[in-house]
Structure formats: C-alpha cells, structure tokens
Amino acid sequence: MFLGKGGAGKTTLAAATAVRLAADGPVLLVSLDRAHSTTGVLGVPAGSGIRSVAPGLDLIEIDSLELLERRYTTLSTLASAVGGHDHAGNFHLPDPAEITGLPGAQDILALTEVAALADDGRWGTVIVDAPASADTFAMLTAPHTVLGYMERIWPQHSRIAAATGPDPRLAVVVALFDRILAAVDAARAVLEDRSRTDVTLVANPDRAGLSELRRLRSWTALAGLRLREVIVNGILPDLGSDDSAGRWLTARRNAQRRVLDEMIDTLVEAPVRVCAQAEDEPVGTASLGALADSIEETVGTRPNGGADDPPVRIRHDSGTGVDAVYTLRMHLPLADPSTLTLGRTGDDLVVGADGARRRIRLASGLRRCTVAGAEFDGTGLLVRFAPDPEVWPS
After folding, report:
1. Per-residue pLDDT reduced to its tens digit, 8-65
2. Which fold has domain 312-387?
3. Within this chain, domains 1-308 and 312-387 share the same CATH topology
4. Which residues are registered as beta bridge partners of 12?
5. pTM of the entire predicted model
C-alpha cells in the first residue's frame, strides 16, 4: 500500500513500482484514491472494471460509492426473502441514501474488495494507491474497529439464538449480518498479515513533508501495519551551475538534503530511498519504468531495523501467580508524544496518539489483570499488568 499526502507523488510512484514489478510477474494496480489520477499517470483512457494496461500489468479504479450502492442492492434483494411472512411489513432495511452517507461504509467496502482481489490468485502482487493521508488511518483501521463494535452490539451467542428462534425474519437478518462480518474480517486479516501486506510511505523533502511523514509513520504503527520503506520524492539534481539560478538551486537542494538526513536519522526500522525531480512529468509505462529504476538506491539507513517484529509483544516479566508481572510492548514512534493517551475498556486497551485512536483486544491472560503502570521510551509503549486476585485462577 502506498500512503502519502496529496501532491507528494504517491500515485506516480505506486504506478512506477507496478510497472517495474510487472516485468517479474503479474501485477494488479488498485486505485482507492478518489481523485483516480492513475489512468492519467499511465497514459491510458479512463475505464471501468479490471483491464490490462501493459504486459503483466492490470488496473482497477474502485469507485467505492458505486460499489456500496451495488452491494447494498444485493443485500436488499436478499432481505426481501422475508416478504411472505405475516409480519414482513414491519421489517425494512434503511434507504440506500442513508447507507451511502454512513461514515466509513465506503472505505470498509473498498477494503473488502481489495482483500478479495488479493485472494483471487491471478496476481503475484497487488499495489494499492490509497487515499490522501488525511483519510488513510480511518480507512485502514475501519475493519478492526467495525468488527469490535458489531460484535459488542450483537454478540455471536445472541445471533445464534435469534437465527434459531421462531421468527424467520431474524434468521435472514442474522445471515446478512454474518455475511457482512465475514467480508470485513477477511479485509482485516489481509491488512494485519505482515507477511502479505506492507506500506510504502511517500514524502516530499521539506519541513511539511517531514511532519507528515512522522504522522504517517505513527499511524502506520498504531494500525499494526508493516512499514516496508519510505520514498522521499522530488530531490533536486545537482546541476553544477554557478550562475544565480544555479546557486539558488544548490541552496534549495542543500535544504532538501538536510531534511532528508533528518528523515534517515528518524526512521531506523525501514529503508529510506530517494527519487530525484524528473525533468519531464513521467507519463506512460516507459517513463514510469525509468523513474522506478532511479529510486533503487538505498540511502544510509539500517534496512529492516525491526520492521518484521510483531507490532505488539507480550511477555512474562517476573513473579508467579498473583505476584506475577506481565508486559505488553507496542511499537509506537510518535510524531508528538504529548498526544499519547491510554485507557482500559473491558477486554480492550485503548491507545490514542497523533489524532488517532485504536482499540487493542487483550490476550486472555491479560484480561484477568489490572494495569499496573505504563511508560513511553520514544519508539514504544510499555504497559505493565498485574493479576487481579479476584479473577486470577488459583
């Protein structure tokens, strides 16, 4: 998945990477960005559905609103199966316009479509051009969040009781509910499988780009996603000219390099690559392939310095029985540590940071514990747990 703020070059670099990888095997490029500028970058006409745009390279631009309306129509048709019941007149699904306005519904459905495409088997690699970073975190955490809320609203044991009861309408509703849950869970499983899914962050070499990169890095860690690499896009070339324009470009390039050095020092868990400012806008597979070749060099970083580590690790720290201490460590490099918040709600740990929040379901053992303390060491959150004597097994 390629993430970055609007204008950073995310779509161009996603397409360039797709072109490069298509030489080694079939690739599907998926656009979730509502601007849908992928066809313009590739230099191909707009179209619908999955279509081949080059040897080994397919493209699909997902219209999440149209997809939501189409899938909802299907669910409405299934729900009409209760029409023969004496009390069917009291059972109605909401109007489609209400559903399409539901926050997050489009993002969830788009991700379930991506998960289905990833499981299709036709492509060795699926590259996703995600929405601009302002919408990214809400989209990536939507499956996990929705699954938790839906299960709390209508737990599985209650659904089973409803489905086996005397009212056939409820059996249909349960079937629809479970169908939705299964699709959302499939999307969650693909996103959280670090052996299948990783993230490339795209940033510009300026102060605003550095701030956005720090925030995106924090959100990626909070979502539990694997950070594969960072591409710093738009570094000015060294023209070697000594006239006034050359001096201006040199000063500008030196400022970019200082920001780049900060990015490299900040990011210890993934490679940082650079992409020079192109003389002409890269459009079409030939120029995109050349652009991809230009970002191959890794710049002074420690590759994979922990990117493959589990996002949350739990260990027995000391003691036995009710005197034991357990620790939960979460990789969490924050843009602004002062925004960190921590709470406990039932079986969930609620972590907030940098304007985002995520619920983490605790392991069964930790659910019988109370929070004994917490600290932040700059790149990780450490939470200590102590067994609750009232519920801890004797």
Report:
1. 899 999 999 999 999 999 999 999 877 678 899 999 988 888 999 999 999 999 876 6
2. Immunoglobulin-like (2.60.40)
3. no
4. none
5. 0.84
